[in-house]
Amino acid sequence: MEAWELALAAVGSFAAGYLGSMLGLVLGTLRLPLFVWLAGSPLAAAGTNIAVSAASAASGSARHARDGRVDWRVVAWMAPPSVLGAVLGALLADDVSERLLQALIAVTLLWSGVDLALRPVRPRARERLKLWPAVAGGFGIGALGGAIGVILGTLRMPTLLRGVGMDVKRAAGTNLVVGFLLGVAGFATHAGSLGVEWELLAAGLAGGLPGGWLGARATGRFREDTLRLALGAVLVLVGCAFAAQATL
User: Fold this and answer.
1) How far apart are CA 166 and CA 128, in angstroms?
2) 178, 24 in Cβ contact below 8 A?
3) Are 236 and 114 in contact (CB under 8 A)?
4) Residue 94 gets which letter from DSSP?
5) Most exposed residue of 24, 62, 126, 228, measured as fewest CB within 10 angstroms of its CB?
6) Residue 124 binned pLDDT confidence (cut-offs 50, 70, 90)
7) Three-state DSSP class for 101?
8) Cβ distance 13 to 55 under 8 Å?
């Protein structure tokens, strides 16, 4: 690959890692089109993107954990059903319309994004968190993501906020840890069949690792309402991307 292509991959990975870690998202969906264009192969781009997503999420997760923004109890309840759902979704992917799944994801993301951005922004965290939404939501979202090959932290985040009752900052750290575990499982499952573009992976890691760490550090600098508005805007953006894919 040309030097400018590797530089572009690094910059794109840094931006996705920074914004994603700040909001508790992996945002591999936004990075994937860039990798497809640079790699020239959707399969190699997908395998490489999963690896960069997992690494960026690991970097951001480490910083969130260091700053006390990870609820390990919620992780323990949410991660296993998420991984199980992703595996089952991948196995059943051929039996379900991908466009239908993308349309369902788009509607959910758009509604959640508008809801977060427009509803009066007030902290609504519960002292006693509800764990069953973490289990049920983790499994269902994992199955959807597994069927179309994405981690879907953008759907888990509203579940943690509205269903479980977490504040935005702890939800961001918790969601990123779950996304990291899903990324590792997805890469281990699909790397052999998807393939990896190693030069692109190195460039992605060069940008994604520092981006994830610095983005997670930035989470503590913003007010709760600012993070909610930013998260709402990103959900709408990703929702529009899924809607576009569903109509093509």
Assistant:
1) 9
2) no
3) yes
4) G
5) 126
6) low
7) helix
8) no
Distances (CA, A) of 19 to 97, 170, 173, 234: 31, 16, 13, 9
Q: Is the dihedral angle over the CA atoms 221, 163, 153, 81 positive or is it negative?
A: positive
What is the Cα–Cα distance from 122 to 139, expressed in whole angstroms?
A: 28
Residue position matching structure tokens 């996705």: 16
The residue assigned the tokens 């994937």 is 32
Question: What are 130-174's pLDDT values in tens digits?
Answer: 999 999 999 998 888 777 667 778 889 889 988 899 988 899 999
Burial readout 134-173 (b: 16 or more C-beta within 10 A, e: otherwise): bbebbbbbbbbbbbbbbbbbbbbbbbbbebbbbbbbbbbb
What is the tens place of the pLDDT at every residue in 11-50? 999 998 998 899 888 877 778 778 888 988 777 787 788 8
What's the start-to-end Cα distance of the chain, in Å? 29
Length of the chain: 248
Q: Give me the residue label for tokens 């490489």.
A: 48
Residue 111 in tokens: 């509604």
Q: How far is CA 248 from CA 69, 100, 118, 130, in A?
A: 39, 12, 29, 38
Residues 176/82, Cβ–Cβ less than 8 Å: no
Residues 6+ apart with CB under 8 A from 75: 174, 177, 178, 181
* Residue 26 · residue 38 · CB < 8 Å: no
Hunting for tokens 């894919």 — which residue is that?
Answer: 245
